[in-house]
């Protein structure tokens, strides 16, 4: 399998409105991608299509080497982990941290199966890898938001997915919790047998060096795609955001600032 995601001339319309328009995008094995776009750009719709929750109106989609229309999408989803803050509100707050993690093997809210010893060992290993092993025995509701996000990532990894989607995982985190979570994600990406990662964000500074490719979506269309160091520059992002911005690079990460003299609208 050379292509993890292969999308050709894909569009999605609902009630006569175009949400995604003629998307062409290929993510190959061994590539980690960042997906950047403002609210309303079509990021969530794209993720729902990749996961097989909605069907494209036109074009072709293949995920993990499996063309849509030839596979059971329920089976495909077992190979995809999707971490979204929307999941946090669905979990049982009184469940212990390790229960949250191990339930990922069964894709259930709550634990209704009897996990094997191997399952518990894997859950503990994933918690250790993500720097949250100390949460064992704690209830989910007593964990900080950053700690909860680490548990959700560990939960997604229980099924040993080949593709892991991190959907704005740093949303709502303070600076220090964000950096701790990003450090855990970087460690994960560099580990042996790590899945292909898609990192969805509004913020360029969250795009770690491990994400060497970026897809920029604007109003349902691919504005551009390519290597991060070629895409995240002041000129291109000024065009993308339709206002003058300045990109400051530091340690292979990119901070976005309003360009000097460009007034901030209120």
UniProtKB/TrEMBL annotation:
Any coiled-coil regions, as ranges: none
A Gene Ontology molecular function term of the record: ATP hydrolysis activity
Pfam assignment, any one: ABC_tran
Residue span, ABC transporter domain: 5-244
Keywords: ATP-binding, Nucleotide-binding
Recorded superkingdom: Bacteria
SMART domains reported in the protein's UniProt record: AAA
PANTHER family registered for this protein in UniProt: SKFA PEPTIDE EXPORT ATP-BINDING PROTEIN SKFE
Protein name: Molybdenum ABC transporter ATP-binding protein
Origin species: Ammoniphilus oxalaticus
Organism ancestry: Bacteria, Bacillati, Bacillota, Bacilli, Bacillales
């Amino acid at each position: 399998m050379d292509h993890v995601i292969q999308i050709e001339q894909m569009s999605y319309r609902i009630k006569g409105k175009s949400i995604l328009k003629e998307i062409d995008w290929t993510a190959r094995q061994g590539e980690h991608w960042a997906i950047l776009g403002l609210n309303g750009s079509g990021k969530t719709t794209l993720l729902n299509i990749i996961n097989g929750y909605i069907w494209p109106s036109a074009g072709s989609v293949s995920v993990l080497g499996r063309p849509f229309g030839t596979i059971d999408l329920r089976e495909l989803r077992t190979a995809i982990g999707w971490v979204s803050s929307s999941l946090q509100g669905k979990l049982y707050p009184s469940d212990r941290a390790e229960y949250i993690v191990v339930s990922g093997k069964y894709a259930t809210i709550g634990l209704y199966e009897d996990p094997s010893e191997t399952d518990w060992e894997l859950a503990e290993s994933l918690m250790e890898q993500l720097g949250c092993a100390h949460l064992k025995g704690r209830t989910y509701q007593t964990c900080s938001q950053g700690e909860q996000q680490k548990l959700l990532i560990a939960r997604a990894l229980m099924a040993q997915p080949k593709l892991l989607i991190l959907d704005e995982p740093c949303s709502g985190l303070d600076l220090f919790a964000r950096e701790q979570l990003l450090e855990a994600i970087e460690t994960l990406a560099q580990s042996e047998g790590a899945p292909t990662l898609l990192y969805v964000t509004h913020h360029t500074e969250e795009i770690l060096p491990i994400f060497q490719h970026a897809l920029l979506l604007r109003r349902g269309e691919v504005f551009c795609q390519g290597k991060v160091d070629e895409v995240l520059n002041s000129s291109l992002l000024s065009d993308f955001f339709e206002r003058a911005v300045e990109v400051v690079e530091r340690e292979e990460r990119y901070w976005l600032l309003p360009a000097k003299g460009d007034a901030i609208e209120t």
